[in-house]
Amino acid sequence: MTQRNRTLRTFLATTALVATGLAATGALAQSKVAVITPYLAQPGTQFYVEAFEAAAKDKDWDVNVIDTAGDVAAVISRIEDMVTQNVDAIVLNVDPSQVSAGLQAAAEAGIPVVGMDAGSDPLLVTNVTSNGYAMAAETSTYVADRIDGEGNVVMFVFEAFPPVQVRSVVADAVFGNFPDINILDRVTPDVSDGGIADSRAKMEAILAANPEPGSIKAVWAAWDQPALGALQAIEAAGRDNEGIVITGIDANPQAREAIESGGNFEATVAQDFKGIGSTAADVVSRILAGEEIKQGVVYVPTKLVTIANAMAD
Amino acid sequence: MLTLLRRYGTLIGFAAILLFFWISLPDTFMTARNWLNISQQMSMLIVVAAGMTIVMVMGDFDLSVGSMASLAGIVVAVMFTFDLPIWAAVSLALMVGLAGGAINGVLISVIGILPFVATLATLTMLSGLAFVVSGGKTISGRVIPEGFSGFARGGLSLGEWNGVAIALPNLTLVAIVIVALVWVLLEQTTFGRRLYAIGGNIEAAHLSGVAVRKLKLIAFALTGSTAALAGIMYASRVASANPTQGSSLMLNAIAGVFLGSTFSEHGEPRILGTILGVLILGILDNGLTQLSVDSYVRQILVGGIIILAVSTSSLTKHLRA
Amino acid sequence: MPLLTLKDVTKAYGGVPALKGVDMDIAPGEIHALMGENGAGKSTLIKILAGVVAPDRADIRFDNEPVSIGNPQSAHRLGLRFIHQEFNVVPALSVAENIFLGRAYPRRGGFLVDWRALNQAARTTLHRLGISHIDPRRALGSLTLGDQMLVRISSAFVGEAGTPARLYVLDEPTASLSRDESQRLFTVLDELRNSGASVLYVSHRLDEIMSICDKATVIRDGRSVDTGLIADITHDDLVTLMIGRRVEEAYPPRVGVPSTTVMFSAQSLAIRGGRSLTFDVKAGEILGIAGLANVGQRNVLRTLFGDISAAGGAMLLGDAPYRPKSPADAWRTGIGYVPRERRSEGLILSRPIFENASLPHLAQQSLWRSFLTPRREQRSAVSQGELVRLKAAGPKQRVRELSGGNQQKVVFAKALAGEVQLLLLDEPTRGVDVGAKFDIYTIIREMAARGMGVVLVSSDLPELLGMADRIAVMREGAITDIINAADTDEEQLLNLCYGRTTG
């Protein structure tokens, strides 16, 4: 019995010691900010979070990065835990409509929540993201310029997904402003296998229907996969020397490689992931300083990628 | 000392964990608000683990509960896109769970496939089915009725505590009801007694007049239904459905039952032990998150604690023998 | 000079003494019996020899050299071979491969296994031990249990280079063997003795010990009480030594005569894998079933119990037709069953006594046939326990913690808890020590006296002669004779089992 008492006492003493240590670190007058995401393992997310952490370090915040490994319900749980901890702000990287239970808890406790490429929601103070309209404007004007404002253009679009839908709206407007540009076809590829294979098949059909060299001047794609599919189709048909201009959006590594090799795929747009992270940190610091953020969305500039800078960053 | 450690080792550990968080988080951990949060956060896992306990009592287990939960969530959400009323969509999803569980039961008890193989196969099939039914997409937004997603946000008001309104969350209520039902089933009925007999010695149980096949089939069907219920709760909580959202439930449920079985004197799964086991997992998540411990470190800790609890109870058993 | 000398071997488990000082000498070339009731300490002694359990105090000499057996490997190095263990055998491999598992197989060109040579070597080894009926090319797993044991002995006999076998330890080897198989085993043990090795033979079966052993050591209550030559001792003396008191009768006396009312009858009942049988059991009668091992007795009981469906024919219980579809059906109708393997078939060792006792009748003992009433179950278990003279701490004690004899009494208590009319017994005293055996015989008698019909399958002919009213002899799946137990003797019964006409 005495033996047990001694062990118990030793245990209690150790626990108390550790606890005091932990309490001491928490006692500093730092701002506490939690970053909660189910997607930390994805490359884009890592860029935002690292940039956010770097900016937070300069501001001397106590940042707690929480990854729920794909579990969206756990995001709600962790928001609730952070509300219990009464953190100063929460930064979120998940579709806000799926975690509204957690957002409500935060709103009731008066804790501001900032979206980091999350989507818009009335319960978010604001959402920091890239401007889809601007990205589409970059590539569609590039196309219009390269074909001197005239000729047939094939568009690859996807209206069912809102962030992609806004891109085609802008492209339609830009091409519509050039009287000599004719939209030959508006294709919605089947995306169940990523979009490359079906886009290639669709493009092959279009090429077969328009055999004359010069009958297709450009391919504008709302994201990179259909652009890559179209490129494959054009190369396979041996029409890669007709000067057909292809553009995509998102600047995925395959697209950058294609652009760098100097073929028909000429341009895409890169989102500034690091910029999203550091801008989110900026927004949080403005909120903590008491400023009221008026914009529901804070746009971070994007960058056109061409052969000149394809492998630069 | 040794008997004490074997009998109450996990309980002492549980108390130590509580004490540790209480001291480390003096203002936020031992509060009604936080405990209601934990109960709500763990409610889905508790429901799955309660169902898992039913089959683990027989010495079997069900690997398909996670994908069953995902599928049930998808079924509910897809039914909403057809404008079905909430009660109809929920009943249909529960029926899918019952049917899926019964299929597991048939494979295991009638055809005689090992539970590991049979439920691994149904895990894959159900998961594929969830993708097919949903088209691989997350179903969210306006198609999910407010009444459905509101359920997870609502609760039974308990009055005020320190000036803050406190409510017992609906999800917690559902979990309590399920635990109570499973407790009655396993501890108070001939059905439960017979399941424990099957778990102890299947041949002796059969020769003592226990209808082993029928009971196994029913047990797996019940496990499937609880998994589906958890999936529906999950969909309500996130107001959406995604074909993979239940996948983390299976391993955590099995871990919870294993942890819980170390509470019982003879190391068999008991429903109340399971609840304590699941609570340990939930408290660790909650407390370590509040202490800003890295999420990955948390996973390592949880695994370590399971190994510690199970090895303590089996080691002390060896030493005694 | 003795091969192995044990002096003052002492061992306690957590303060409870298991061995209080055992002495034993085993000479080379001798078959030495180790005897004692369950719980006397035999298995602890064997575990100490095997290096599995460390003694608290012991003086162990091998070839007169003091040795300590710290682990199974050192026991093996000394030349001790424990045949009951599944050592070095692989069921999927052939007999020959198993026999030579510890040695290099013969090769052709130093590369390919020379199967012909291997099989020939195995055949030679088997012949040296007097075994001629086993084909060395067959898979070990396809042999009967008895033949598998013979192969294990052959494998130990061949051994590995460098560590020849000196002492074979066999713990209850004949428990699951037929009479023929046991006989073959004894021949092999004889050959081992001729080769100069010794055998330590643990068994409950006195007649076996009387016929094959040279010396015997009896231990009781953790102490060796006597060692002596078998030639100098009688059957009854051995029993007295083992249980510490004289036993007047091995079987309780018959009380009254069975009624003439037929309570169960099988009419051309076709047993799967057997033939069709016609027999009846009268109320209060014990019907014995005799036969060599595996001639279908087990399937008869399983068919009566509903575990195997009958291929044809009919059964009557009282006047009503009886067609059980499952054991659950059988229990409901009033048929009780005591299976052959109590640990693997009869009991749920991890559960308490009362849960085991009530399991076949759980619905009757429950509220609305669904909700448990543990108090009622425990009360009922206590009274059943008294009827079967169960020694236990209480109804909540786990069955695992009971001795073998008391476990078997729990199996009987199961049959008593409901309204069983016909009791099916499959080798009910197998592996039960002498004292508990008598208790079990008494229970069977009492059950019959209450008007129950009893079917008793046993390979122990004296047991059948001592207990049964009538004995049905089975041969090749059919009942060939039904005789009154009072009108026959062991020799005639054995001849009937073999199908020989008595001269």
UniProtKB/TrEMBL annotation, chain A:
<dbReference type="InterPro" id="IPR006311">
    <property type="entry name" value="TAT_signal"/>
</dbReference>
<dbReference type="InterPro" id="IPR028082">
    <property type="entry name" value="Peripla_BP_I"/>
</dbReference>
<comment type="similarity">
    <text>Belongs to the bacterial solute-binding protein 2 family.</text>
</comment>
<feature type="signal peptide">
    <location>
        <begin position="1"/>
        <end position="29"/>
    </location>
</feature>
<keyword id="KW-0732">Signal</keyword>
<protein>
    <submittedName>
        <fullName>Substrate-binding domain-containing protein</fullName>
    </submittedName>
</protein>
<dbReference type="InterPro" id="IPR025997">
    <property type="entry name" value="SBP_2_dom"/>
</dbReference>
<dbReference type="Pfam" id="PF13407">
    <property type="entry name" value="Peripla_BP_4"/>
</dbReference>
<feature type="domain" description="Periplasmic binding protein">
    <location>
        <begin position="33"/>
        <end position="292"/>
    </location>
</feature>
Automatic annotation (TrEMBL), chain B:
<feature type="transmembrane region" description="Helical">
    <location>
        <begin position="217"/>
        <end position="235"/>
    </location>
</feature>
<feature type="transmembrane region" description="Helical">
    <location>
        <begin position="106"/>
        <end position="133"/>
    </location>
</feature>
<keyword id="KW-0997">Cell inner membrane</keyword>
<dbReference type="InterPro" id="IPR001851">
    <property type="entry name" value="ABC_transp_permease"/>
</dbReference>
<feature type="transmembrane region" description="Helical">
    <location>
        <begin position="42"/>
        <end position="59"/>
    </location>
</feature>
<protein>
    <submittedName>
        <fullName>ABC transporter permease</fullName>
    </submittedName>
</protein>
<keyword id="KW-0472">Membrane</keyword>
<dbReference type="Pfam" id="PF02653">
    <property type="entry name" value="BPD_transp_2"/>
</dbReference>
<keyword id="KW-0813">Transport</keyword>
<keyword id="KW-1133">Transmembrane helix</keyword>
<keyword id="KW-1003">Cell membrane</keyword>
<feature type="transmembrane region" description="Helical">
    <location>
        <begin position="71"/>
        <end position="94"/>
    </location>
</feature>
<feature type="transmembrane region" description="Helical">
    <location>
        <begin position="296"/>
        <end position="315"/>
    </location>
</feature>
<feature type="transmembrane region" description="Helical">
    <location>
        <begin position="164"/>
        <end position="186"/>
    </location>
</feature>
<keyword id="KW-0812">Transmembrane</keyword>
TrEMBL record, chain C:
<keyword id="KW-1003">Cell membrane</keyword>
<comment type="similarity">
    <text>Belongs to the ABC transporter superfamily.</text>
</comment>
<keyword id="KW-0472">Membrane</keyword>
<protein>
    <submittedName>
        <fullName>Sugar ABC transporter ATP-binding protein</fullName>
    </submittedName>
</protein>
<dbReference type="Pfam" id="PF00005">
    <property type="entry name" value="ABC_tran"/>
</dbReference>
<feature type="domain" description="ABC transporter">
    <location>
        <begin position="257"/>
        <end position="501"/>
    </location>
</feature>
<keyword id="KW-1278">Translocase</keyword>
<keyword id="KW-0677">Repeat</keyword>
<dbReference type="InterPro" id="IPR027417">
    <property type="entry name" value="P-loop_NTPase"/>
</dbReference>
<dbReference type="InterPro" id="IPR017871">
    <property type="entry name" value="ABC_transporter-like_CS"/>
</dbReference>
<feature type="domain" description="ABC transporter">
    <location>
        <begin position="4"/>
        <end position="246"/>
    </location>
</feature>
<dbReference type="InterPro" id="IPR003439">
    <property type="entry name" value="ABC_transporter-like_ATP-bd"/>
</dbReference>
<keyword id="KW-0762">Sugar transport</keyword>
<dbReference type="GO" id="GO:0005524">
    <property type="term" value="F:ATP binding"/>
</dbReference>
<keyword id="KW-0547">Nucleotide-binding</keyword>
